[in-house]
Amino acid sequence: MEIPLYLAAAGGSALGAVIAVLLIKLYLIKKSVREIRLSMEESLTQETNTLIGIYGGDRSIRLLAEDLNRQLRLLREERARFRQGDQELKRAIANSSHDLRTPLTAVFGYLDLLEKEEKSRKAEEYLAVIRDRSEAMKQLTEDLFTYSLAASSSREPEYAEINLKGALEESIASFYPAFKGRGIEPAVSITEKRVERRLDAVALERILENILSNALKYSGGDLSIALEPSGEMRFSNSAPDLDEVRTERLFDRFYTVETAGRSTGLGLSIARILTEKMGGNIKASFKEGRLTITLYFPEGRPASGDV
Hints:
It comes from Candidatus Allocopromorpha excrementigallinarum. This protein is an alpha+beta fold. 59% of the residues lie in helices and 12% in strands. The strands form 2 sheets. It has a 5-stranded mixed sheet. It has a two-stranded antiparallel ribbon with strand order 1-3.
């Protein structure tokens, strides 16, 4: 039995119409999914209060967008609580560190007086232990206070034109007696070109101080320091107590290598915070038994949103 031509044509037209509707529906669904993906990416990577907006389209897509918006609201609430708690913790650390300074000053004052008194050899040994532990407490207090200030977003760097060569030479000179005391003769290579950057002088001084202090702790007996015409600074030393895994954690808060003595694990963490606040970059690498810390500040003052 043959189907009449007009019925076949009608059936073909209906099928074509259905296919066209399905293709349009598929296009709209794909468009909505793409919008959701872009909105999610923006919400997760940027500070924005905008939610996912899907107008019209498939009901299932709208329900998906509503569910994602609920999760975004919860995420923002958690972020806000975290920021508030983090700021409160930093203020508590800063206040506690500040409050500890007064009793520590008194402790050192009495230690000085006791050292002038006549005492037995055993008492001298006990006194030496007390001073050593007090010095460790003082170092921890100072590092905690500095870290809380560095991590705080309330203070922006005070920019000025800084000669990197002069700043580096001053820092090396201040550490030179300590290096000599450990038998380390730094090999220094500094470009003759004047390299200037717009930086916070106090922050840069602290960064260099912390890097050199780290070298003093971990060096196996040598240290090379270089300042390139590009402005890149490199600090390299043999580090027998490190490896690639430990090197990756050197910038973590409170991370210390067991042989670091009084290290609080905050020195390089502070250096990284201050460096990034001024738009710079600091990194550590370990190769063939040598630790290299590279510090670089690009030319020009960073945008206000980066500090």
